[in-house]
Write a structure and sequence with these properties.
With about 120 residues, this protein is of the alpha+beta class. It is built from three helices and four strands. The longest helix is centred in the middle third of the chain and has 13 residues. Strand 3 and strand 4 form a beta hairpin.
């Protein structure tokens, strides 16, 4: 976790898995109950302290992702403003739209939903 904490600190952010662990361990909050697919990613993060992400590939155009060293931030709800960051992936058919980044997480176009069960 320390490597992630250092990486996030460079962007004045807090590693979200650290916040999740603190919420459960220190504050006694329970595990979320979103869907088995989402919940399994959450538990994997807590057990390994390694960042995970899950996407509904059918919701992505092009259905091919790659790792980017620099690119944009996942689009806002209105998908107008990608912003600079380091790390993540993008959807090749919609080159300007980042679907996931290390710092900002995933976009609102490709989350796993209850429809995916």
């Amino acid at each position: 976790m320390s490597a992630y904490v250092r990486y996030y600190k460079r962007s004045n952010k807090t590693y979200h898995v650290q916040l999740q662990v603190e919420s459960i361990v220190l504050k006694g909050k329970g595990l979320p109950n979103v869907s088995p697919l989402v919940d399994s990613n959450f538990v994997a993060e807590l057990e390994t302290l390694v960042l995970t992400a899950g996407h509904d590939v059918a919701k992505l155009q092009g259905r091919r992702l790659d790792r980017r060293v620099a690119g944009g931030r996942p689009a806002d709800a209105d998908e107008r403003r990608p912003q600079a960051h380091a790390g993540g992936g993008h959807d090749h058919e919609r080159r300007a739209r980042v679907c996931c980044s290390i710092i900002y997480g995933q976009d609102n176009r490709s989350p796993i939903s209850s429809e995916d069960l």
